[in-house]
Every structure is written in C-alpha cells, then in structure tokens.
Specification:
Blueprint lengths: L1 E6 L3 E2 L11 E2 L7 H8 L14 E6 L2 E13 L12 E7 L5 H6 L11 E4 L27 H20 L4 E4 L8 E5 L2 E9 L11 H9 L4 E7 L2 E2 L5 E2 L4 E6 L26
Parallel strand pairs: 1-4, 10-11
Antiparallel strand pairs: 1-7, 2-3, 4-5, 5-6, 8-9, 9-10, 11-14, 12-13
InterPro entries: NOV_C
Protein name: Protein NO VEIN C-terminal domain-containing protein
C-alpha cells in the first residue's frame, strides 16, 4: 500500500511560525521536487498504519506529481498539534525518474475527493524499495537507510555523541529534534548554539541536509554547529557498532559552493516538437 497526500495550490507561510521554518506549502509546478517534498512531508495527522508504509505519493488536481520512499515518521512537537491532536511528519526521499516505483506511480490518477490522506494499493512495489541499499562504509555520501529502526539508531547515536560533547564542556543542552530544523540547543554564559547531528555508515565526507536546515543555519550565522558520526556499522544481529566510528564537530555555515542539488524538476514544453534532423 501507499499513502497519498492531496496537495492544494502553493500557500505562503510565515517561516518564523511554521514547522521547520517552511516559507510555503502545497504544489508549485516549477519548483524542484526535493523542495516540494521538504515543505509538504509534514505536518499531518497519522494513525498507527503509517508505521508500516514505505511509499508516499502526492497528488495535485487528481494526478500524482511526486513519489517518495518513506524511511520513518517524526514528531513535530506539541506546539504544532491541532485541537490537541498529535501531528507528525514523514522522513524519506524523493524517488527519481527511472526508479521502478516512481515510473509506475508518477502521473497516475487519484480520486479528487475531500480527504487529504488516502491509501491505494501498490502490489509488488513495496518490496522494490528493499533493494535500495545504503552506500558502502567507504563511500563518501551519507546514503539512504530504508529501515526506520536502523535510521533512528544512526540518528540517535549521532545525537547522543553531540549532546555529550557539549555537556562535557559545560553547556546546558536541550533536545529539540522534534520541534524544528535543528536537533538540540546548547547554552552557556549567554551564548547559544544550534546543534545539528548526522549519523552515517559512510566516511562522512558528505551528508544529506534539508532545505529547512540550510535556511535556519543561514538565519543564524556563527551560532550553528554540525556533528557528524561516521563509519558506523550494524552487526549481523542488527545492533549498532560505533567502536571504529569517527566524530567531528564543525561550524554549520552552509555556503552555496558546499551544497549539491540531488534532484531538479524540469517543466516540459509539451507543445514543442523536435524538428526533423
């Protein structure tokens, strides 16, 4: 099964008040799909069923316009709940053109009813994502971990190491990973540091960051720090092993030249016909 999210036209938000500092939500046809995903993966009211889903589709005016793999679900914090009801956000990544799941679902029709969330059968496609293996430990990229339990273990290990690093140096640290585009806040002597933690099985030469994380870091220059715990391993029993892991702490001041786009969306000009060659 896949869960479908019905999108409306783009709506401008106040980044200072919206979850994860989002400037907008909804569907914008000329925006990269990674950005559409980041601004629409939350916040939603999910039942327990979402924990078992692997595929998300987003539809606009009855047509699927984005297909993503679900790797987990995160809480967004009580301040974003509605009428006292819990709200959460998806974790995952956009599936590119050429991926079997993307190609099977992109452009398909979805009912144009009033329900914001609906489920639809995806026979044989759920297991396809099981072949999306993370990168090898010696690779440079962070890679993608589909198993939500392993993904959480990687995140928790990095978070714990970064918080311990600052506590050992006399900072008061608050875990706020479910409340915004950073994982923790450290305070000491009137100073504030926004902490971002990344855990990976690769060598940590590059890690995946969200647009929300980048926007926040740029709004707080000199106050953001990123801790990367790399070289993590899982044993045959599925336990996380960190004895050979490497931990680095660096200023988190993302410059354009240090960021690499992983996907673009191209708006086709359907009426243009290639001239005879």
């Amino acid at each position: 099964m896949a869960i479908n999210f019905k999108l409306f036209d783009k709506k401008v938000l106040d980044p200072m008040k919206s979850w994860a500092g989002r400037p907008w939500q909804g569907w914008a046809p000329k925006v990269a799909l990674e950005e559409v995903w980041e601004y629409n993966r939350g916040i939603w009211r999910f039942g327990d069923r979402i924990e078992d889903e692997r595929i998300a589709t987003f539809s606009w005016r009855g047509e699927v316009v984005l297909v993503a793999a679900i790797t987990g679900v995160e809480d967004v914090g009580p301040q974003f709940w509605k009428n006292g009801q819990r709200r959460r956000a998806l974790q995952g990544y956009v599936l590119p053109e050429g991926h079997r799941v993307h190609d099977a679902l992109m452009g398909t029709e979805r009912p144009r009813n009033r329900a914001a969330l609906t489920y639809h059968p995806t026979p044989d496609l759920d297991e396809v994502l099981a072949t999306d293996e993370p990168l090898s430990p010696d690779s440079e990229g962070q890679g993608r971990v589909l198993d939500p339990q392993r993904r959480k273990a990687l995140e928790d290990a990095a978070q714990s190491r970064l918080e311990t690093y600052y506590r050992d140096r006399g900072w008061e640290v608050e875990d706020v990973r479910f409340d915004g585009p950073y994982d923790a806040i450290a305070r000491k002597n009137g100073q504030t540091r926004y902490l971002e933690a990344k855990g990976t099985q690769s060598n940590g030469a590059s890690v995946t960051v969200t647009s929300g994380e980048v926007h926040h870091a740029r709004r707080h220059p000199g106050e953001c720090v990123i801790g990367i715990l790399s070289g993590l391993r899982f044993t045959e029993d599925g336990e996380l092993e960190d004895k050979d892991a490497r931990f680095t702490v660096s200023p988190w001041d993302p410059a354009d030249e240090d960021l690499q786009a992983t996907q673009y969306r191209w708006a086709t000009t359907r009426e243009t016909v290639l001239a005879a060659e």
